[in-house]
UniProtKB/TrEMBL annotation:
Pfam families: ASTER (PF03669). Coiled coil: none annotated. Keywords: Membrane, Transmembrane, Transmembrane helix. The keyword Kinase does not apply. This is Protein Asterix. One of its GO terms (molecular function) is protein folding chaperone. GO terms for cellular component: endoplasmic reticulum membrane. PANTHER family: CGI-140, PAT COMPLEX SUBUNIT ASTERIX. One of its GO terms (biological process) is protein insertion into ER membrane. Belongs to the Asterix family.
Length: 96
């Protein structure tokens, strides 16, 4: 329902068109990279899981026009790599 007092003052919202250089950064993807590096290098399991959560959140909230495939692949691969190094590498080192 709209306000009937000033129907002439109502204007539709138009999203501004952004150029490729003006696309805002994806902060969740950046956090995913940072947590993935921390989880891989420092062997922190919490960093690895936070990396995976940030990567999933970034993928869920991305717009098709703003999708940067390199950034998506990089953040997802760091998330998966940090989890595998924390869990699989520890089992392999215990067995030897």
């Amino acid at each position: 329902m709209s306000d009937p007092r000033m129907s002439s003052a109502v204007s539709l919202y138009k999203r501004p068109v952004l150029k490729e250089d003006e696309i805002p950064p994806d902060w969740m993807a950046l956090l995913s990279l940072i947590f993935g590096i921390v989880g891989t290098m420092a062997k922190y399991k919490l960093g690895a899981w936070l990396s995976l959560l940030c990567a999933i959140s970034s993928l869920a909230n991305i717009r098709p026009k703003e999708a940067d495939t390199k950034q998506i692949i990089c953040s997802c691969s760091f998330a998966v790599m940090s989890i595998t190094t924390n869990y699989v590498a520890k089992k392999a080192s215990k067995e030897s």
